[in-house]
Design brief:
Order of helices and strands: EEEEEEEEEEEEEEEEEEEEHEEEEEE
Strand order of the largest sheet: 8-9-10-13-17-16
Number of domains: 3
Distance between the termini: 44 Å
Number of helices: 1
Shape: globular
Structural class: mainly beta
CATH class of the largest domain: Mainly Beta
């Protein structure tokens, strides 16, 4: 008995194409296993390789490294060996990312969000569900999703829920709502590119709607929080065995912090970062209209020139509609 892991590799060798008569060697290195496991090739057609391997039941879930060697293209060139860190979706002490089956919603969990009592990776899922009765004051709906976990868990602090913005929607009116019982409660969200992001503190049902009830004017700022109160721009993920994973790290989990805050009204928001001496380090948001409710932006620990800042405390200053609030965050570069 055991579990079976499948691996699909798209070599995507545009100039020549892969020689399907020469099979590459593909191994899977688990953190808990002293030796790598070699996958059995199931098929190799065009540039697509598919293989599988059996894993014992008593092997715990977690991150692993896939290593590929020995592939050859149709011109006889042997490919350079490469490896890729595949992170656990959600791991105690490490955080992770979960995506809905349709790719429309993701949940980003920082390392300190999960309960410290967890001893194994929870199975966290994001599944589409019927919307049912739409929230009052909304004019369009763009889907609802239920976030669940086995075993059930309570988040210690906010995770970041990320919805894809549908084409043709009114971006100025978009808001994420949470369903509690039979009642939808407006949370808000920050539009960034083709996504809208919002901090959440519960695994529940969430939906994306166009909200006509958004108010504007001078407004207060409350509940400034950081996903990582201390973070390191230079920190990287670790591969099983302790070596650095280099370019295969998950940068937003370890090398950035999400700054979340509540607005009482829609307002133009400016966010600046200062060092302890009061010198302006960078302007994170020069002036962006944000809606009432929960909002979130990210800082990667860089200054206005794009260079990593020095270790120390930094002041995050948020201005919105005449109101200003500040809070400190620590950067620890190694």
């Amino acid at each position: 008995m055991g579990r079976r892991a499948s691996v699909v590799i798209d070599f995507n060798d545009q100039p020549a194409g892969m020689d399907n008569n020469v099979s590459p060697t593909v191994t899977l290195q688990l953190a808990s296993e002293p030796r790598p496991l070699t996958l059995t090739q199931l098929s190799f057609s065009g540039d697509l390789w598919i293989g599988e391997v059996d894993i014992k039941d008593d092997v715990p879930s977690g991150s692993f490294v896939v290593r590929v060697t020995g592939g050859t293209d149709l011109k006889g060139n042997t490919m350079t060996a490469f490896e890729r860190l595949i992170p656990a979706l959600i791991a105690p002490g490490g955080g992770g990312v979960v995506e809905s089956p349709d790719g429309g919603v993701t949940l980003e969990v920082s390392p300190n969000v999960l309960p410290s009592s967890l001893t194994e990776n929870p199975d966290v899922r994001i599944d589409p569900v019927p919307i049912g009765q739409e929230p009052s004051g909304t004019t369009a709906s763009y889907g609802a999703y239920e976030i669940s976990s086995d075993p059930a868990i309570e988040l210690r602090k906010a995770a970041i829920l990320d919805f894809s913005i549908p084409p043709g929607s009114n971006r100025d009116r978009l808001a994420v709502f949470q369903l509690s019982g039979a009642t939808w409660t407006r949370l808000g969200g920050t539009v960034s590119g083709d996504r809208i992001r919002v901090p959440i503190t519960d695994l529940s049902i969430y939906g994306l709607f166009e909200d006509t009830a958004t108010s504007t004017g001078s407004g207060g700022i409350a509940n400034i929080n950081f996903s990582n109160r201390a973070f390191s721009h230079g920190r990287v993920a670790r591969r099983p065995g302790g070596g650095p994973a280099g370019g295969n790290a998950i940068p937003f989990l370890l090398q950035t912090t999400d700054i979340s805050f509540d607005l009482s009204n829609s307002a133009s928001v400016r966010i600046e970062i200062y060092n302890r001496s009061g010198k302006l380090t960078t302007i994170l948001i020069p002036g962006q209209q944000m809606n009432a409710g929960r909002n979130v932006v990210s800082w990667d620990g860089r200054d206005h020139n794009g260079d990593p800042v020095s270790s120390g405390l930094y002041i995050v200053s948020i201005d919105a509609g005449g109101a200003r609030e500040q809070k400190t965050v620590a950067v620890v570069n190694r």
